[in-house]
Amino acid sequence: MSIVNSDKWGTAFVLSNGVLHKKDSKTSHGLIRGSNRFNIRAVIDSHSAGKDAGEVVDGINRGIPVYDNLDDAIEKRGKPDYCIIGVATKGGILPDELLEVIKNFLVRGISVVNGLHYYLSDQPELVELANTHGAGLIDVRRPKAFRDLHFWSEDIYQVHCPIIAVLGMDCAMGKRTATLLLQEALEKAGLRTEVIYTGQTGWMQGIKYGFILDSTLNDFVSGELSHAIITAYKAEKPDLILLEGQSSLRNPSGPCGAEYLVSGNAKKVILIHQPSREHFDYKTTWGRIPSVKNEMELINLYGSEVIGLMLNTEGLTDTESQTYKETYTRSLKIPVVLTMEDGLENFVQSLLNKINEN
Amino acid sequence: MSIVNSDKWGTAFVLSNGVLHKKDSKTSHGLIRGSNRFNIRAVIDSHSAGKDAGEVVDGINRGIPVYDNLDDAIEKRGKPDYCIIGVATKGGILPDELLEVIKNFLVRGISVVNGLHYYLSDQPELVELANTHGAGLIDVRRPKAFRDLHFWSEDIYQVHCPIIAVLGMDCAMGKRTATLLLQEALEKAGLRTEVIYTGQTGWMQGIKYGFILDSTLNDFVSGELSHAIITAYKAEKPDLILLEGQSSLRNPSGPCGAEYLVSGNAKKVILIHQPSREHFDYKTTWGRIPSVKNEMELINLYGSEVIGLMLNTEGLTDTESQTYKETYTRSLKIPVVLTMEDGLENFVQSLLNKINEN
Q1: Which of A41, B82, B170, B205 could make a disulfide contact with B35, Cβ separation 3.0–4.6 Å?
Q2: Phi/psi of residue A316, each to 5°?
């Protein structure tokens, strides 16, 4: 996966704390799939030690070995500039065991990159340790100060290239990965494509323009989004802008999406769906995920149009996947693709035809 | 206006800085209409000095005199415990002139209540002044610390009384005032009614349960909302809960509303509309406000139902207001009321009939 327009920082290890093989290690998976901000040299994960991290994630060897512990990793790969916490923790707090691991990095002068809502630089003990050993504490999700935040601006209407939001039918269906694969395919088709990141992993992967939506004060979400789009448009003059979606329009734990459509002026939407998932966050008590058709109607009411559907085939056989693809293509009359199985080349051509129709 | 379940703090002056007679003085207007947190003793406003504040706001004398300056106000009404900044400033920052006024309060030992995104307690000079003179600095909009925030909980589905969201077709159409008037009318009809505030003025008015939506990190908006509802339900066992809306579902400067419907589980909605307003925030470039019918369809797609429409008649003649009321009643087939002109008694009865139908 290639990421266009990145800020480069240095070498890094990813700490995935024994859960690299599980789904909740989204940040680790993103970094292993590709980061231009950090040169990922190793993963530390006791459960998958000895394997290649890429093979653990999706079966593709990426030359990123997994080690049981930091000492093993340093011995084989040298001391990195950074260590990135690649796991989400329950309730966003830091378990004691992870705290000890972090201290272990700091005493070796390795800076720690943290994407949790729990801020390391608020902990006097860690700050002192970092200062003593010349390491940094980077809390990616720490909210910006008021002076650095933007209110929404109608200058968004001066962005004269298509703005496409990549939205999901639920959380964790692969929106970010799909967005970056789309960018790659669009670039291959000759279109200069900017991605606006909206989560901490996007920033860690080195995407240049964006903001972290969930740690932004609500009053400034629309402003930060429009500011990122306007800035990217003016600086890069892209042919097309993709917005990384967050959550989903109707997930009860935190709906999101209206901001992209009305404040980000995304008149086109690509939807991500996982047909095997019936309930929000897999929980029957959270309610059924609506149909794709119903989601398209909702998006229409916001003044935007769904131009393509990307399917995550988790939990489906090949035959089932093909059946879903054919059924959706026929009933929704939009391009449909199996994100990981099909190449995106034809899909991207269909999207471009659809965009040029209007 | 009576506010049920309030936290009482003390006496206060409201500083409206020469704009009490204008619409942008929403916080001042709310406090003058009614506050149980503060006993409002006077308003400081050079433009309206000599008048009664209630008469300036809506023609109703409330025994709250307006003075030109702090010294006059103290001479006539005694020194208050608090002074509340009752104006919004451009971009949320504090003009130098207002800073001098605030210092003038602090040296007299009067605590300052501030609802701007600009935090007084971040200014060393003000903190020192406050400490020296035994005054407090209360930054209402300062975001809560992570440890005090809540993630969304499905316990919201254990709230077994109707939850009704009061949503607007645009910002500043009188949602908060309508919500409090509804509460008053519902209480009169014998229903114990809790309001969940979602803005700084609601807190200043003394509403007991709620949070300040626009200064909450996006990840916690759904959680803080559901937590406030669940807490109010458990503690007060009300017959009905009203949620104060913010912004509107499709205002491009910051859409809001989906959270109320899916995370707050508000299956019923009362819409506030001002028929004379054609464009969002009165700006043609921001786009047309959709029709009420279209808004009802959008709300339906979120799984909720509009059960009543309250009209703000600003800019309309009496005849026009009546015509709108009749037209909406006929075409939408829901109860419609002129919020400030009609009494809410009949409207509330119609709402209750509609709720009991289901």
Answers
A1: B205
A2: -110, 150
Contact B219 A297 (CB under 8 A): no
Check: CB of residue B252 under 8 Å from CB of residue B177.
no
Flag if A263 and B250 touch (Cβ within 8 Å): no
User: Per the CB < 8 Å rule, is A217 touching B215?
Assistant: yes
Question: A252 to chain B: nearest residue by CA?
Answer: B263
Chain B nearest-CA residue for A256: B258
Return the sign of the alpha-carbon dihedral for residues A290, A293, A297, A302: positive
Reduced 3-state DSSP string for B219-243? HHHHHHHHHHHHHHHHHHCCCEEEE
Nearest to B219 among A117, A119, A262 (CB): A117
Using alpha carbons, list the distances in angstroms from residue A9 to A27, A201, B280, B282. Answer: 17, 15, 43, 46
Chain A closest CA to B211's CA: distance in Å?
A: 12
Check: CB of residue A105 under 8 Å from CB of residue A112. Answer: yes
CA distances A158 to A153, A223, A225, A227, A351, Å, are 10, 15, 14, 12, 23
In A237-313, beta strands by DSSP E: 240-248, 268-273, 305-311
| β-pair type (B163-168, B209-210) | unpaired
- Which residue carries 């691991």 as its tokens? A101
Is residue B310 within 8 A of residue B332, CB to CB? The reply is no
Residue B234 contacts residue B196 (beta carbons within 8 Å):
no
B214 to chain A, closest Cα gap in Å: 4
Residue A265 and residue B251: Cβ atoms within 8 Å? no
Across the interface, which of A156, A217, A252 has its CB nearest the CB of B217? A217
Nearest CA of chain B to the CA of A298: how many Å?
6
Q: What is the C-alpha separation between A270 and A232, in angstroms, rounded?
A: 20
Distance CA A119, CA A197 (A): 21
Which residues in chain B have their CB less than 8 angstroms from residue A249's CB? 258
Q: What is the pLDDT along chain B (358 residues), one digit of tens a residue?
A: 555 555 678 999 999 988 999 877 889 999 999 999 999 999 999 999 999 999 999 999 999 999 999 999 999 999 999 999 988 777 677 888 889 999 999 999 999 999 988 899 999 999 999 999 999 999 999 999 888 999 999 999 999 999 999 999 999 999 999 999 999 999 999 999 999 999 999 999 999 999 999 999 999 999 999 999 999 999 999 999 999 999 999 999 999 999 999 999 999 999 999 999 999 999 999 999 999 999 999 999 999 999 999 999 999 999 999 999 999 999 999 999 999 999 999 999 999 998 888 6
What distance in Å separates the CA atoms of residue A189 and residue A184, rounded to the nearest whole number? 9
Q: In the β-sheet with B268-273, what is the strand arrangement from edge to edge?
A: B209-210, B193-197, B240-248, B163-168, B268-273, B305-311, B336-338
Contacts of B7 (CB under 8 A, 6+ apart): B36, B37, B206, B208
Instruction: Output the CA torsion B221→B223→B226→B228 (10° steps).
Output: -80
Each residue of A224-237: b (16+ CB within 10 Å) or e? bbbbbbbbbbeebe
**Chain A, nearest residue to B158 by Cα:** A285
**Which one of B214, B249, B251 has the shortest CB-CB distance to A217?**
B214
Q: What is the ipTM of this complex?
A: 0.93
- B78: left (phi > 0), else alpha (psi -120 to 50), else beta? left
Which chain A residues touch B216 with a CB distance below 8 Å? Answer: 217-218
Task: Out of A152, A252, A301, name the one closest to residue B253 (CB).
Answer: A152
Are A112 and A99 in contact, with CB atoms under 8 Å apart?
A: no
**Taking CB atoms and an 8 Å cutoff, what residues of chain B touch A215?**
217-219
* Cβ–Cβ gap B217/A222 under 8 Å: no
